[in-house]
Amino acid sequence: MVLLDIRDLDLSIARGGELLPVVQGISFTVEENETLGIVGESGCGKSLTALAIMGLLEGSAVRIAGGSIHFQGRNLLALAPVERRRVMGERMAMIFQEPMTSLNPVYRIGDQIGEAILQHRRMSRKQVHERVLELLDLVRIPDPERLIDSFPHQMSGGQRQRVMIAMALACDPKLLIADEPTTALDVTVQKDVLELMHSLQTRTGMSIVLISHDLAVIAETCDKVAVMYRGRIVEHAATSALFSNMSHPYTLGLLGSIPAHDQDVEWLDAIPGRVPTLDELISGCAFHPRCFAAKDSCRTVDPVAAAVAPAHFVRCHFPQGNST
Amino acid sequence: MLVYALNRTLTLVPTLLAASFLVFMFIHLIPGDPASILLGDAATPEEVAELSRELGLDEPLWTQYALWLANVLQGDLGTSVFFREPVLSVIASGAETSILLATMTMLWIVLFGVPIGIVSAIRQGSWVDQATSGGAMLFASVPTFWLGLYLILIFSVGLGWFPSSGFPSLADEGGASNLRYLVLPSLTLAAPNAALIIRLIRASMLDVSREDHVRTARAKGLHPARVAIKHIFRNALIAVSAAFGFTFAALVSEAVVTETVFSLPGIGRLVVQSILRRDYPVIQGVILIIVVFYMVINLLVDLAYASLDPRVSLK
Ligand SMILES: Nc1ncnc2c1ncn2[C@@H]1O[C@H](COP(=O)(O)OP(=O)(O)OP(=O)(O)O)[C@@H](O)[C@H]1O
Ligand SMILES: [Mg+2]
């Protein structure tokens, strides 16, 4: 069953009276109990895509300029604000990139987790308290009875991210969006948190959209992957298909930025150059200035997404893998 | 917390000493002496000298200060040169008016300032916001006496809703209805300070609304009003509470003007008259009390600050 279905999503930023496109024509689906990984360098529009799905762009400079987001069969973009809020935090929840600042500094963490429950469930204070303890235990916070009354500043980054996960899981959501949940954490803690999310998924059967700029993390945890570059999905496939047949030069470049373990790849250097800024106009393929495989046509013609294998799409004139 | 409060109270002592010394010296820099003002133009130099001696004003300044300080430390603020009464009872007679005026003013500030500040932050950029920002700017920059006179002109002379001057005690005939005498003065006093609070609340709410944890709150599906009050305003209050101390300082000087404009028998007017009469003991007494009061307010602000923000621990 398809849980989340995104079609041709366009996002623009209003800046100085004009609309700059940041995310262009993104489409993907997430099945029930599936994990989709979104990977890409900083600034390629991963977080904005996540915020658009959650419905958190309102009040920012970013507009949804086109496309649709269907969740459980309903177009979220057509819902009234009241209806939309019923989905947020209830059936769909999000973990943010910055655990240090994502909790309200003035409230006890127990109350912050409980707030999500009180919002969507009819429960007594006592029941909520029980549920919060249960959640803290679920995310493996030691000594929940004591920590339930702590303030965020009294906790470590790893603990805070666990609290964020507990908060997101408060109402048993069908979809969890995790926006670089481990980037701000120590390497040792990173593994724990990812593993925790995976085991929670097995328990609850929820779907996860995991955003990362680390292809290694994606490889370990996701069923399928969407590689983003400059607001577009440039390669999209099942994880195994992608890793056995990497086709976009950008994806190969990203792999090069993985601390090499057993893979035998030539591109150990990260991709040369930087992500162009939003207002830089690039003719042809947006990646060509940094691409090792760029030829003349790349500079003039923007490639369209094409299948190099069944359900393996690449937006490139010269896919590197072994096309069938 | 208690230890902190006690510590802070102890550190008040040197500050108070320094303040009292400065006040004492500055007052005596004002030309003219109380004896000749009391006796009028017709007095002979001998009479003036006689009265000066009687009042202890012929001693060197240092001795006068030491004497005054010794008395203050025993709780005796001296005797008013003009009223020939203990300074403390002269001040007490103006206290009712001033305390009621201050309370009413604070009430207006909170009643108007807080909700308007919140609304203009939530509706940032809307016509409500622009109107209140304009209004706040106007009220913050208009001189107190000017606003007072206009309020008198409109609501007292024009509409006849409120009396324009004086204040009979609540114990007098009329009882609590005498509070209507304080409506215009307290509004005059509240306007610039409410304007300040509005702008402060608006600015710090807009700051907080950009913080990550507000997004977390919205992601729970909370109603925007709940996010605004429980999450944004509650955090903005931390910054706003710190500003209440400044508001008090501004209030004191504006109260002097307001009490004069509305001829209120309060402490503010007492100061002005005492300066004109060169009634040194009263001026010193009042200023000493205001300084103590100011410090107490600041201590309360710090305590409030600490109780609003769990990250702050008082040491
Ligand atoms: N509220 C905003 N207003 C204006 N521009 C924004 C806003 N949020 C993001 N942007 C811009 O949109 C682009 C995409 O941002 P986004 O946060 O989605 O990137 P990202 O892929 O999540 O990167 P990172 O890995 O650094 O988190 C960036 O160029 C960023 O500067
Ligand atoms: Mg991001």
Describe the protein.
The complex is a heterodimer of chains A (324) and B (315). Chain A is of the alpha/beta class and 324 residues long. Chain A folds into 2 domains: 2-222, P-loop containing nucleotide triphosphate hydrolases (Rossmann fold); 227-324, no CATH class. Chain A is built from 11 helices and 12 strands. The longest helix of chain A has 18 residues, at 187-204. The two termini of chain A are 28 Å apart. The model of chain A is unreliable at 259-268 (pLDDT under 50). Chain B is mainly alpha-helical and 315 residues long. Chain B has a domain at 93-308: MetI-like fold, CATH 1.10.3720.10. Chain B contains 12 helices and no strands. Chains A and B meet through α2 and α3 of A and α9 and α10 of B. Magnesium ion binds next to α1 of chain A.
Task: Offer a concise description of the structure.
The complex is a heterodimer of chains A (324) and B (315). Helices cover 32% and strands 25% of the residues of chain A.
